[in-house]
Amino acid sequence: MSVRTRIAPSPTGDPHVGTAYMALFNYCFAKKHGGDFLLRIEDTDQVRSTASAEAAILKALRWTGLTWDEGPDVGGPHGPYRQSERSAIYREHADQLLESGHAFRCFCTNETLDALRLSQKGQSYLGYDGRCMHLSPVEVRKQMDAGVPHVVRMKVPREGTCTVQDMLRGPIALDWTQVDFQVLLKSDGLPTYHLANVVDDHLMEITHVMRGEEWLTSAPKHLLLYQYFGWQPPQLCHMPLLRNPDKSKLSKRKNPTSILFYQRMGVLPEALLNYLGQMAWTMPDGRERFRVEEMVEAFDLSRISLGGPVFDITKLYWLNGTWIREELTDAQFADRVSEWALNRDHLMPIIPLVKGRVQVFTELAPLAGYVLAGIPDIDASLLPSKKVEAAVVRKVFWAALQRIDKMRDYTKEEVEAAFRDLSAAFDIKLRDLLRPFYVASSGREAALPLFDVAMILGKDIFRTRIRFALEKLGAPTEAEQKEWKAWLDARPTAAPTVE
Ligand code: GLU
Known about the structure:
Blueprint: E1 4-7, H1 17-32, E2 36-39, H2 51-64, H3 87-99, E3 103-106, H4 110-119, H5 137-145, E4 151-154, E5 161-166, E6 170-175, E7 183-185, H6 193-203, E8 208-212, H7 219-229, E9 235-239, H8 259-265, H9 269-278, H10 292-298, H11 313-327, H12 330-340, H13 344-347, H14 351-354, H15 364-372, H16 390-406, H17 412-426, H18 430-442, H19 450-457, H20 459-473, H21 478-489
Parallel strand pairs: 1-2, 8-9
Antiparallel strand pairs: 3-4, 4-7, 5-6
Helix pairs in contact: 1-10, 6-7, 9-11, 16-17, 16-20, 17-19, 19-20
This protein binds glutamic acid.
């Protein structure tokens, strides 16, 4: 049987470097064994999944240079490759489990479940107690006929252990009592991740599942589902998670995590993959700079180390520098710079902002150069003003970051509305409220129109500049953040109409 691996991102946010990291290792493993690498979009969470996030993931992964043999954009014999288009398949499989007695319908309301949770305080097993498993067929029928909303849950043993064979860790025993009666089908008839993931990995003939170690605790449920269906499970390989330099799990609150951020900063895709390849892996000859093809050639799971790999921007930029100096000819350098940002498509949105402000082209660089820059150094004393003192600027920056994080599409209208909202919440005139953001985003007091600049910079660079400015004034403590959140939640927001 030929090797088939996959990357299965959920389109719920910015394309994460962790996705490229997992894609790279899945790709290398498949290609080393002459197999196929697939891309599947796991958009079963209808509330959080967006088409724009999916488009961004595809674009970002394509930019890295990785390719997939099957996927929503390239097609293939096991499609559709987008889970939202496969609902009927999951429903059929849930029905199968109901019929074979491996799953049951649960009619409990949220109130019942909340009360249950409260009553479990202090007990070791927390979670649903499986009460609906004992309903008689007649009772189930009655509830169904009355149209009572319900979910489908899987049955899980209440004693003993499940042994997960992990390709990197060997056998791991996990207690069944720690595994809940997982919901497989929600009351809207759509599947949860667990059902959809197992059904698709089987139907798409995935032989090896390489994914982040945060999924290890889900493995017992998945293995049990394979057993219930009578299917051979794939080999499981849980990769160590990327970490911030302080060893905590890589998060955008501490480090930019979006692939698009690194693209905009001018990291070469080869260097990004090279650096991600160095996470958890070393070349047999210890060489630091290598291409994906070389990694494929040398790939061997026994060279993966489980120690938490640190994603350190300084090291990535250093490596990128060596790629630029040693791998690019001058002509390639010129081409790459224009592919990056010095091209017509990228410059066009900047033109309307600068055209009326210059007499000769030489004035362009000082006026708009910051739009192309990374994270400008700023003079913290420029951030506060008579109207908005430093302590308030910190709180405003923090609140703006919360709002930006929550944006679904990051359009100019959405950004503008968010700032109007903050202006109402803080009771500070919009002009005064925006002033420190001009400084944060440009390093200067006078700058181009903020909302336009926010679009040209993109969400990641814009938010990173604000975060950097906030840190210049002093990063907020946990206690401050808690207090600010409570304060902000209690504030009035602006009317949705624009003045
Ligand atoms: N959709 C899951 C994620 O976003 C996939 C996990 C897996 O690879 O099984 O990480």
